[in-house]
Design brief:
Blueprint: H1 20-30, H2 35-38, H3 60-71, E1 74-79, E2 82-87, H4 90-99, H5 114-145, E3 149-150, H6 151-168, H7 181-193, H8 197-204, H9 212-215, H10 218-241, H11 251-260, H12 272-277, H13 301-332, H14 334-350, H15 356-361, H16 364-376, E4 382-386, E5 391-393, E6 396-398, E7 403-407, H17 408-412, H18 431-436, H19 455-472, E8 473-476, E9 487-488, E10 494-495, E11 500-505
Parallel strand pairs: 2-7
Antiparallel strand pairs: 1-2, 3-11, 4-7, 5-6, 8-11, 9-10
This protein binds protoporphyrin IX containing FE.
């Protein structure tokens, strides 16, 4: 055999008299499958054409854990002919996400400015609280009925309201007014994002945060784009007529202000995650970790629409699922919930109208509960980097073009870093325990210059929501509560059948 060419059109080296087309397809169906072995990387045995597709039939979450158990912390698989190298080894992850970032920097362009996100969060707090009041009103009805219900559906509507308000500058009540054009278009956008398993597999795999534009069919995409574009253009026109103090202080306004700002700092200028998770209090001006990047160009209206879209897609599902997971875990761990309720009550006594700064400082147990939930159930449980050039990472050869998958689920459930990984234990995240943690064993928001841009906003929404909900109610498990929770992992990790619980007024 002389030919290792991956080009399906190349039939070089055949000498057994097989008809060219049969030979070609035989070569094509398996020719790509020697690459992992050549790199010395263990992997499940691939099948012709589909590679290891069948390995993932139980869901990407379960398969990721199984991959680590069976093939180790550096392993691989093929989807179709495409090769993936999966890493859940902390030092190697650090090399890829931080130390060798320049070789693994493939990122979608983003005009989001972290500094401005941070500066504007305080102003967004009342908008989120406003949407939360609507959620609390809906929950009151369920409390009165005493019936079990799917709280994930409530969170889903609520998160749509938050996105509408914060990103698109428009107020909706998705639960009561599902016929609202914004709600309808959002639902269609989400349905398009993750439609049928196979499509989701082919189109959205491996990146969870795939830009909407790439995954929608053209006609529908244009229609959706048209709707959101008009919405934003109208909002911009309205704001142009308003005096500065009349304008809503939301994400849209922040991006519009950025258009006029002369000195913005590039995304790479901050280590958002370390900073956001350090609970270091409210910083007027977050510390810069690296040198400031060149001044950004003002955004066009299309780019602003793109930013709002990104927000919609990136934030909506993940926040809904995070809130659902926390609620489930609190309902089945009443002791933890009891302790949290005390903290919430004390806090609300001191700060009846919570502000961003207060939230950073005085809710240590809530922080622990959120952190442990994101360890057990990290919604973005896998993300990828692509090698721009051939390189070596801690002795492992990585050819240019290789897709590296960071296996956050496997990392967070590795008993070497997290003893009894299936046990919910917020004590893993006391300030002291955090100091002891081995670096790069906990990555719910990714790490390095390409990490989550919405980490602060995401945590703000989650905290503010739980504060306001737990101030009024507590969660109770009921016979309808599925324990253990069945998970779905086609795109983000989420509950498969919703989260059925009871809610009790306090
Ligand atoms: C609890 C909530 C959230 C979690 C757990 C989360 C998690 C993540 C993770 C793991 C990544 C991949 C990071 C990496 O590749 O290193 C990511 C990327 C991203 N997230 Fe989030 N996210 C959350 C909320 C949000 C929100 C609310 C927004 C919108 C403002 C957002 C915007 C983004 C964007 C734009 C990226 C892509 C960054 C890039 O490719 O450069 N996220 N997120």
């Amino acid at each position: 055999m002389c030919c290792e060419c991956l080009d399906p059109g190349c039939g070089g080296g055949r000498d057994d008299g097989l008809a060219p087309s049969i030979w070609d397809s035989a070569v094509y169906s398996t020719s790509a499958f020697s690459r992992l072995e050549k790199l010395g990387i263990r992997h499940p045995k691939p099948s012709p054409f589909v590679g290891n597709l069948m390995f993932f039939r139980q869901g990407f979450w379960e398969s990721q854990l199984e991959l680590r158990e069976r093939y180790g912390r550096l392993c691989g698989y093929y989807l179709g002919r495409r090769m993936y190298v999966v890493i859940s080894e902390p030092d190697m992850i650090k090399q890829v996400l931080v130390e060798n970032f320049s070789n693994f920097s493939n990122r979608m362009a983003s005009g989001l400015e972290p500094k401005m996100v941070a500066d504007s969060l305080n102003e967004m707090t009342p908008l989120i609280s406003q949407a939360c009041e609507v959620l609390v009103a809906h929950l009151k009805r369920y409390a009165a009925s005493r019936d079990a219900f799917d709280i994930q559906r409530c969170y889903c509507c609520y998160t749509t309201d938050v996105v509408a308000s914060v990103a698109f500058g428009t107020q909706v009540d998705s639960r009561n007014a599902p016929e609202d054009p914004f709600v309808q278009h959002c639902q269609r956008a989400f349905a398009f994002c993750f439609p049928r398993p196979l499509l989701a597999l082919i189109l959205s795999f491996p990146s969870i945060m795939v830009p909407l534009a790439r995954i929608l069919p053209n006609k529908k995409r244009d229609e959706l784009n048209g709707f959101f574009n008009t919405l934003i253009r109208n909002a911009i026109a309205l704001r142009d007529q308003q005096a500065a103090e009349e304008r809503r202080r939301d994400f849209l306004q922040m991006v519009l202000d950025a258009q006029h700002s002369m000195s913005s700092v590039g995304v790479e200028g901050f280590d958002m995650v370390t900073e956001a998770l350090s609970s270091s209090g409210c910083t007027e001006d977050p510390p810069q970790r690296c040198r400031p990047m060149s001044t950004s160009k003002p955004l066009t209206v299309d780019e602003i629409v793109g930013q709002a879209f990104l927000f919609l897609v990136a934030g909506h599902e993940i926040i809904t699922n995070t809130l659902s997971f926390i609620t489930y875990l609190l309902a089945i761990h009443p002791d933890c919930q009891e302790r949290l309720l005390k903290e919430v009550d004390l806090f609300m006594e001191k700060h009846p109208a919570p502000e961003y700064c207060n939230l950073q400082e005085s809710l240590p147990y809530l922080d622990m509960v959120i952190a442990e939930t994101l360890r057990m159930y990290p919604p973005a449980f896998r993300f990828t980097r692509e090698a721009a050039q051939d390189c070596e990472v801690l002795g492992q050869r990585i050819p240019a073009g290789t897709v590296l998958e960071i296996a956050v689920g496997a990392l967070h459930h590795d008993p070497e870093h997290w003893p009894n990984p299936e046990t919910f234990d917020p004590e893993r995240f006391t300030a002291e325990a955090r100091r002891q943690q081995r670096p790069f064993t906990y990555l719910p928001f990714g790490a390095g210059p390409r990490s989550c841009l919405g980490v602060r906003l995401g945590l703000l929404v989650v905290k503010l929501t739980l504060l306001q909900v737990l101030h009024k109610f507590h969660f109770e498990a009921s016979p309808e509560t599925q324990v253990p929770l069945q998970l779905e992992s086609k795109s983000a990790l989420g509950p498969q059948n919703g989260v059925y619980i009871k809610i009790v007024s306090r």
